[in-house]
Amino acid sequence: MNTLSTSALLLLLLTTSAHAQQPFTVGPVTAAPGTTASGELTVPPRGGDQGTTIPISVINGARPGPVLALAAGVHGQEYTSILALQRLLTTADPKAITGTLILVHVANMPSFLARTIYYSPADGKNLNRVFPGKADGTLSERIAHAITQEVIARATHVIDLHCGDGNESLRPYSYWITTGKPDVAEAGRKLALAFGMDHIIVDRERPLDPAESVYLSNTAITRGKPALTTESGGMALSDEESIARIERGIAGVMKHLGMRADGPAPIAQPIMIERSEVLRSGATGIFQPAVERGHTVAQGTLIGRVTDFHGRVVEEIRAPFAGEILYVIGTPPISKGEPVAYVGTTAAGAGASR
Ligand SMILES: [Zn+2]
Known about the structure:
By secondary structure, this protein is α/β, with parallel strands linked by helices. The protein has helices spanning 3-19, 79-91, 109-114, 139-151, 182-195, 216-221, 240-256; strands spanning 24-26, 29-31, 35-43, 52-60, 63-72, 98-104, 157-162, 168-170, 173-177, 199-203, 227-231, 271-273, 275-280, 285-289, 296-297, 302-307, 313-318, 323-329, 333-334, 339-345, 352-353. It contains 7 helices and 21 strands. A hairpin with a 2-residue loop joins strand 1 (24-26) and strand 2 (29-31). Helix 2 (79-91) crosses helix 7. The radius of gyration is 22 Å and the shape is globular. It binds zinc ion. Zinc ion (ZN) binds at residues 74-75, 78, 162, 165.
């Protein structure tokens, strides 16, 4: 074989391998092209805690393409996204997919098994406030670190699938985070449209520093990867409508990214929530809502009352501006500083605040 034909053969091999799907590995899990593989990331014990595991699956398509990471269960009582990914595991045909899906089935196992809202029973921290995490931190920080290093680092696109927490009665919406580089932000807007939920909260206030990204989806965005946070469901329910909405959303994003041939169309006429505000309780006691999710409220409308434990009203919470109730707390316990409701409007204003 002369030099020229050796070069030609080498070029052919390189070209072929560049266009053929490769095995895909996340932590200890490797999926060959056209197959699904499952396993778990291990977060070893440290500093007296027991450590934990993060169950994952890799659905590796037959052809190379985008790597879409889907995270469920960052908050342990948010069941709809966990159940939607369980379904995806059985309905997705890797041979028909272009690119790769990484499924994080239950990101926050300590909170899931203990059925806690907001905070981990292991360290009292909110997993979605400690990203990108720390290798030598508390358990929540080490979970965040593992997801950052093993999942977000391997993905080209990320969706963090939430719903209202176990105490939140929520109407469905996505957050479109605008703070990334312009091309990343625009790609994120298209992900929000492709997911298909009609309410999209325009979020202009996420941190820009990759070392202090705080939120899972923002960890991707600060690393130049388009990402989305979605909310469908709540109140610790496992209702069919909320689960199916997530399944449709994932199918829409996969269609948009060219990962599957068919799928739902993007939302054509989204309701862009330009201004939104989390209303918080100024007192600890018993919360009784006066509105429901999806209600339209005027400025000053009573959202709910906080009473002390002897029935005396200690606070009335009112809408700071006219808008829609995106979520309202649906269970009685309330501590000073905790959210009682989230109100938003299409009218431009101060932007998202929480
Ligand atoms: Zn959540």
